[in-house]
Known about the structure:
single chain, Aspartate Aminotransferase, domain 1, 14 helices
Amino acid sequence: MEWEKLFAPAAQVDSGSGIIEILRLSEEPGVISLAGGFPAAEMFSLTEVREIADRILATKGEVALQYGPTPGFTPLREYLSERMKKSFAAQVAPEEIVITSGALQGLDLICRVLLTPGDIVITEAPTYVGALQTFSGFGAQVEEIPTDDEGMQVDLLAERLQELEKRGAQPKFIYVIPSFQNPGGTTLSTVRRRLLVDLAASYGVPIVEDSAYAELRFAGSSKPSLKSLDSGEGVVFLGTFSKILSPGLRLGWVAAPPALAEKIISAKQTNDQCSSSLSQYLALECGRQGIIDRQIENSKEILKKRAAALVAGLAQYFPQGTHWVEPEGGFFTWVTLPPTQGLDTGQLLRRAVVEEKVAYVAGCSFYAHGQGSNQLRLCFSYPPLENILLGTERLGKFFSAFYR
């Protein structure tokens, strides 16, 4: 059977192979991975989660192992409604919350409901590779807005929206990660947040706010969520338990206006019917018993130390003129090397793994149109401190060779 001839056009766009290859290389013996954005095992509340899982299976096993309602269990949606108020200052009714199998499924469902091939989606540049792959799969046209150390440059967004309006082109939505962005590590300033919400509303363009890392702030001052600044129904919120409890639960949520939430529920019904009942019970009990909040505080202490180690390594070992974002939270920092002959972080990745036994994610993975040849994302959440220091030393010496 010649399967290649049967592939749909979207499947022929091999947008995920680069990340799959990076993760494969990272698993080779002796390789220090500064690539994959995983939480460290020390962040997990393993003992407490095990006890809760045992209790759930003993008392509610027949329900926890069964199919559940497509929108999610009502008690979990009620809990998240309260959590949205407490953590994000956002007023969201339980009926506006849809439980998803991770935040990325939430984004996929939004795209299923809103996008047709050729539709325009506006993103930060760089942005989350999983989002770019999702948009590509739906045939969307990605319009990129440059970022700086304060996040998306909203003045450039205003210019782009004006240009699109003149062409008679209406974007379907703006996708943004305002806090501890992946990959940039940047946080959108409060001034820009207000400008962004007002600007998008004036053009009638919804915002999809991805808040995967927002609760993991270990330095600096907190910023209001875009959802809390929205006086209408213009902001759709994506949340996840992956960074605050466990990625293995595969559990997230979408907070959307009622009309959109209804369509997302219908799309989920035909996608996977429902998210894991057992995961929902676990997340609910961990939330009710304060385990999630305690884990967040523990995670912030771990992340703060590891971020400091990464920054120290960058300052000591990387070439003069290298720029990086000082992390105040989240999992990542974004590194920009001075341009020089022969430097392409994408082409050099395999060589770095083979010669120096260290892995990173090349900058080109995070752009829709292939920029970022002198950029890379480094993750500090997963490797132990000694590996962060050794990994940055190896990488710094590797890249410094191009400036002699």
